[in-house]
Structure formats: structure tokens, C-alpha cells
Design brief:
Chain lengths: ~180, ~260
């Protein structure tokens, strides 16, 4: 969603921003893990975006701009501040389960929707958000880089580690489930 | 390039971030390497699982109303949405057609944007299905080059029937078929081969309201060549890495049979 290079008018905000409402709420709810907080976050995002719309750089990606506002608002919220530790330690080795060397397609195929939802919720927020932007919002690496304000190379490595962590947790749960039978 | 190097590119491939030439070379490698193909399937499965699981939360109608009100108030305050009514009838005569034209343009743009997004979603889902099927150890559930074996196999498995073409004298061979799903709708997936290329033909009942209109093709989408049409209440999608001429030729055979 790129806005034409003409200066955006206030009236075009509604046409650009309202179609993103459902997706933004879904993203906010995944970040905050709480309905009331997600609602506040979406409200805050729209208010800030409205205020800043005149300074929005026309010709750039509007969707990435909205997601960036939402994410920055989240990171400065009480819940979000707790996650900054995880973000700072990004380059260190994670204490998450290691990926099995052999792909276990059959095992992963048994993971149902609820199990995947629960496992995504357990991931650190920087893994959760990049997975959602890539898989659910179907953003390109470039768009994700704009949204998260990180280089494209970091998008690739963070995405790789997020998937590795998700796969590891799912395998752990599935193996635990099988042992419990 | 060895398997380790190819595997390093699998994430880029499933995310549609690989350049067309490299994606094509990777596909050729997957066709001949069961290990990498299984790895690719694993990644596609994980991606699709997160995609489905991630669409989880819906906002309340109340929140939607609040947001709309916030925008309306701000726009009203700024005065940029509705200019103050002033002047005489002459101003209104100029303003009303301009407003109608603006609403029409915005409406068309919004509609076109939504159509495009829906079209891209369908293309991407079909490409995923095609890749996942080829990467699978058992790409088809009914293995036969005989249309009189493949067509009856679908009876009772999908809620419609279809005709398949005679392939004598053509370069195409039927590999087999399987049941598949698109947008929660059951349909048939048939795999055809032409020289070394595999082509998927997807057939679904037509649900004009749910499915976006696609160009008849052939068109290039996500480095695949695709074609689509509606015939006798069924939607046909042809997806493969074969040439546009091959896709058109197979589409013609299917159309003539349908």
C-alpha cells in the first residue's frame, strides 16, 4: 500500500487506514495477549496516526507506517516495556529448544490450530511479531524491515530463528503428548 | 550447488523472496532430491499452520465505531473533509459533480485494491498447494494415467463431477489426482506432466461471491504460469512452471473436454 507522491490529505486517511482495522487489531491482540490492552493500543495507534498523517512521507508504505506506530506504541506501554529485555538480548543464543536436524513433517502435521496458537503465544514478542507479519500479514521482507525498522538481513535471520524456536516448541509438545498416551 | 546451500535458500523460496531464475533452479533441484523436498514441505506446512492459526482475533463492533468516530471528529475539526458550505448555488453546482467523481474514484480504487489482494491470496495459496504436493512423498492419492480411473476415484469425495480430456497425440500425460481445499472448499487437484514439468489443474465448484475473478491467462504469478476460467459451474486453475504455450495447450484440452 503505497501512497502517491502527492501530499496526503486528511480526508484520504480514512480510506487508507480503515481497511487495515481488522488486521491491526489482530496484530495488537497477539502482541498484548489481552483484549482491553489491544483495544487501547488500536485506539492509540489511530489517534497518533491521524495526528501524524500530515507528516507522513508520501510515496512510502502506508501499511508499514501504521504497523510501526502500533508496534512503537506497544513497546512504550507497560506490557511492552517488559519485552525490551528480550529485544536487547536478540543477538545472544536463545535458551529455546534447538531444532531437530531432521525435519519431522509428519510430526508437525499433527499440530492442530489450537496447539499452534498456544505455541505462538509462548514465543518471545520479537519472534511472535515477525512471524505474524510474514505469515499472517504476508508482508515482504522489505515491508517487515520498514515496519520493525531493522535491516533486511536481520529480518531473514530473525525469521529463521523464530521458525526454529516455534518448530522446537511444537516438537517438544507433540513428543510430550505422545509420551503421555 | 549442494543440498546444504539449497536448504539455506528454502525459507526465501517459501516466502516468495527468491529471484525467478534461482527459484526455478531450486524447483529443479527439489524434483530430484527427496531430502530437500521433504524439508521444503516441512517449511510450507509450518508456514501454512501459522498463517491459519494467526488469523485469530476479531475486533468488536464497538471498537470499530469508536475508531470511526475518532477519525470523523478529527477530520471535522480540521475542516478538510467537508468544506464549509459557502457561496451560492454556483459553488454547489461545481462541488457536487467533483464530490461524486471523487467518491466514484475512491470506490473504484478500494474495489480494485481489494480484488487485487484477493487475487494475490488465491494465486499464492494455489502456488503453495502446487509446491507442497510436488514436494510430498505421495503427491497423488490416485496414481493413474487413465482418465477412466482417475475421474471415478473422485466420486463421493468431492461434491461435483468433471470431464477430463483424451491426451493421445499430445505431449501431456496424466500422473494422477488428489482431493484438495481452497478457501475451505473441497476440489480436485490433477497432476499432469509435459516433458519434465509438472502442472497442477485445480477444479472447484464456482462460488463467484467468495472467489476473486482471475484473468483467463496465461499469466505469471509468483514465477509460475497460471490460467483460470469458469465452465459449467466449475472454476479451473492451471498452475505450473511450464511455458505459457504449454499451459495454454493444456487449458484448451481441458476446455474442449469440459
Amino acid at each position: 500500500m503505497r501512497v502517491s507522491a502527492d501530499r496526503p490529505s486528511a480526508s484520504s486517511f480514512e480510506d487508507l487506514a480503515l481497511p487495515l482495522f481488522d488486521q491491526l487489531y489482530n496484530f495488537a491482540r497477539w502482541l498484548t495477549q489481552d483484549t482491553a490492552e489491544a483495544e487501547d493500543l488500536v485506539q492509540e495507534t489511530y489517534t497518533k496516526a491521524l495526528r501524524g498523517f500530515r507528516s507522513f512521507q508520501a510515496g512510502t508504505n502506508f501499511r508499514a507506517w501504521m504497523y510501526r506506530i502500533l508496534r512503537n506504541s506497544f513497546l512504550s506501554s507497560r506490557t511492552g516495556l517488559k519485552t525490551t529485555v528480550a529485544l536487547d538480548s536478540e543477538e545472544h543464543e536463545d535458551s529455546l529448544p534447538a531444532e531437530n536436524a531432521t525435519p519431522e513433517s509428519l510430526l508437525l502435521a499433527q499440530a492442530d490450530r489450537e496447539m499452534v496458537q498456544a505455541t505462538v503465544s509462548e514465543l518471545p514478542v520479537h519472534f511472535r511479531e515477525i512471524l505474524l507479519l510474514c505469515e499472517v500479514e504476508e508482508m515482504s521482507y522489505q515491508e517487515i524491515a520498514e515496519t520493525l525498522a531493522i535491516p533486511a538481513g536481520t529480518v531473514m535471520s530473525r525469521l529463521f530463528r523464530a521458525r526454529k524456536a516455534l518448530r522446537g516448541l511444537l516438537q517438544q509438545k507433540l513428543k510430550g503428548g505422545r509420551r503421555g498416551l | 550447488m549442494g543440498c546444504d546451500e539449497w536448504r539455506g535458500k528454502l525459507d526465501l523460496y517459501v516466502d516468495g523472496e527468491l529471484a525467478a531464475a534461482e527459484a526455478s533452479a531450486l524447483r529443479a533441484h527439489l524434483n530430484g532430491c527427496a531430502g530437500c523436498a521433504a524439508d521444503a514441505l516441512d517449511r510450507v506446512q509450518l508456514k501454512r499452520s501459522v498463517q491459519m492459526a494467526g488469523r485469530r482475533y476479531e475486533p468488536s463492533a464497538q471498537l470499530r465505531e469508536q475508531i470511526q468516530n475518532t477519525i470523523a471528529k478529527t477530520v471535522a475539526k480540521s475542516g478538510s473533509k467537508k468544506p464549509h458550505p459557502a457561496g451560492g448555488l454556483g459553488w454547489q453546482i461545481l462541488f457536487v459533480p467533483a464530490l461524486v467523481a471523487l467518491i466514484f474514484t475512491l470506490g473504484v480504487n478500494f474495489y480494485v485494491g481489494r480484488e487485487r489482494a484477493a487475487r494475490e491470496r488465491v494465486y499464492s495459496e494455489l502456488a503453495d498447494l502446487h509446491v507442497a504436493t510436488l514436494a510430498s512423498g505421495t503427491p497423488v492419492d490416485v496414481v493413474s494415467s487413465d482418465k477412466h480411473t482417475v475421474k471415478p476415484w473422485f466420486q463421493g469425495r468431492i461434491p461435483f463431477t468433471f470431464n477430463l480430456p483424451e491426451l493421445q497425440g499430445s505431449e501431456f500425460t496424466l500422473v494422477g489426482g488428489r482431493v484438495t481445499y481452497l478457501e475451505q472448499t473441497a476440489g480436485a487437484q490433477l497432476i499432469y506432466q509435459v516433458r519434465k514439468h509438472e502442472i497442477s489443474v485445480f477444479i472447484f465448484p464456482e462460488r463467484a461471491k467468495e472467489m476473486p475473478s482471475l484473468p483467463e491467462g496465461p499469466v505469471n504469478a509468483l514465477s509460475f504460469t497460471t490460467a483460470s476460467w469458469t465452465q459449467n459451474g466449475l472454476r479451473y486453475f492451471v498452475v505450473g512452471d511450464a511455458s505459457a504455450a504449454d499451459i495454454t495447450a493444456l487449458s484448451k484440452l481441458l476446455r474442449d473436454a469440459g
